[in-house]
Amino acid sequence: MKFQFNKLGPIDAAEIELGDLTILCGKNNTGKTYALRAINGFLNMWHNEIDFKISEDNIQSLLVNGVLKLDLSLLEKDIVAVVDVLSQKYTDSRALLHKYQPNYEQALHVSLGTLSKNVLQIIKDKDSCILNISLLAENKNVIPHVSIIKHFINKGIGQALLAHYFANPFMINSERRSEFADEIITVHSKQTSALIKEHPALLTRLKDIVGGEYKVENNQIVFYYQKNQHIPLHLASATVNSQLELNFYLKCIAKKGDILLIDEPEKDLHPANQRKMARLFVQLIQAGIKIFIITHSDYLIKELNHLIILSHQFDDRKAIMTKYDYKESEVLEQRQVKTYNAEKHTLVNAKIDDMGIDVISFDKEIDEMNHLYNEITVNLPCAYVD
What percent of the chain has pLDDT over 70? Predict the structure, then answer.
């Protein structure tokens, strides 16, 4: 997945390709959050705005015969142009179909209707490129307007051709959204995510990071810091509040193929927990979730570098992993990572090699502080030990 930006906040022009893990670093006010939110916005809107120019003949055939079959393979040639028009609707930025290949593996079954009855239905069988559209309404008075029918068909085609390419997003802002708590109480707490059903061990890492467990009781969110002891969310620590969205997203919403976008995942976390967060991200990647983060944390980057280095075979690797309790599910390969630095009104590729990610802006500050310490203490008697 590639995106081009033009005149986006402080960014004059830039291109970014998303990996399994995408990292955006840089000084304050350089356009990082603009880029994150622009991508999140596009991924949230594309399926509602996409237009494959469904012909009037096709619509009339559906209305007269009650069924319509579309061969999706015939629409593949139009994909690039359709997405380009879609991008222009959204902003000056563009989504690029980089290395796009259609994937018909997933079955599709969606419907549109009233509270009492479905009036339209789309079915695509597994591994099939044929989209079967059915008009279920016998009463002409409940048949939707042509514009609604077209919109429904466009969404179905888009889902069949692009859902595997444009991941379903969930974004966590650096401010953290207090209004999400209402959604948790009324909707999300009543369900368990497909991700956790398949990978229940992820809950252990979540509990380890926040030091307890979130629950919904009596229409409020509470935090259990011990087995039988809990407090209301508003009395809990900054860490507990800042990690609320991530916890309920993973426990109640997340599914394979999603992309999780987080602005400053290190927020309110001790360095030890920032390292644990890095390991959680890699576990999520291995479970099928793409990750896109903005970070100012050298601890998080260095831990990711450890996980990249551990992807190589070397003497004592197994012993080191055992000693420091690393698991194979936490090992990250260099090819899975895309890293950018926001500078000079653009996004610049950061160096990634067998030793990990090189974030020059972090290293510059660390080197300067080390040099400063040496200069301050070189003539300071108390800095020396007899």
Answer: 98
